[in-house]
Amino acid sequence: MKRIAVLVSGGGTNLQALIDAQNRGEIVNGRIAAVIASKPGVYALDRAGTANIPGYVMARRDYPDSRAYTIALRDKLQSLDIALVVLAGFMTILTEELVEAYPNAILNVHPALIPSFCGEGFYGLHVHERALQYGVKVSGATVHFVSRECDGGPIVLQKAVPVEEGDTPEILQRRIMEQAEWKLLPRAVSLFCQDRLRVEGRIVHILN
Ligand code: GAR
User: Fold this and answer.
1) Given this chain, do its domains 1-102 and 110-208 carry the same CATH topology?
2) Where are the domains of the chain?
3) How far is Cα 77 from Cα 2, in angstroms, rounded to an integer?
């Protein structure tokens, strides 16, 4: 059974999707062993508490810089014997030390079809604002492995979601969460835990 840590910064609806999938027996060979928040008081921690999952706060502001924060986070994850790290709406910049400790073992969910609307500055509602400004007719979500390049790691799963007339960033965000993120993330986590993801360069093969 692989021990999973979910890193969060906000509402935690993607964490909830993982908890619900786990309760349905859909996270095969994996168990959420920890939820770590980058700031205190976020609702995701309440969700962890309700599900009896240990929650930890590691506040970014308690560390002098991103590197010191990343190293502390890495040490915490290793002390908890974590095999898979999931960034589920985790809004804090991390440095290379975490990727080095967890090569192809960190998954991120991004609310767009990478390589569109990704990279620095593209997070949360901003992603949907930019997609609507650009006028795309489809957007969607991507689950990818985290590499040194921001939003640039090998893609595991993607799903397209239509943009509709009259969409606001909030409406589009919700549709992409419901139709894509909340489905893709638990599926990718379960595939990882079953050792069914094989990475060759940029390509992720999904094994039967
Ligand atoms: C989600 O839409 C997630 O894809 C996005 O933040 C939201 C978090 O919501 N992540 C990023 O933008 C990362 N670049 P949640 O806290 O309800 O899961």
Assistant:
1) yes
2) 1-102, 110-208
3) 13
Pair 149, 99: CB distance under 8 Å:
no
Q: What's domain 110-208's superfamily in CATH?
A: Formyl transferase, N-terminal domain (3.40.50.170)
Count of other CB atoms within 10 angstroms of residue 165: 4
Tens-digit pLDDT profile for residues 156-188: 999 999 999 999 999 999 999 999 999 999 999
Question: Is 110 an active-site residue?
Answer: yes
The atom number, within ligand 1, closest to the CA of 123 reads 12
Is 124 touching ligand 1 by the criterion CB < 6 Å?
yes
The overall pTM is greater than 0.85: yes
Task: Find the 165 Cα to ligand 1 centroid distance in Å.
Answer: 23
| CA triple 156-162-163, angle to 5 deg | 120
- Position 107, amino acid: L
CATH superfamily of 1-102: Formyl transferase, N-terminal domain (3.40.50.170)
Separation CA 176–CA 138 (nearest Å): 10
Average pLDDT over residues 32-61: 98
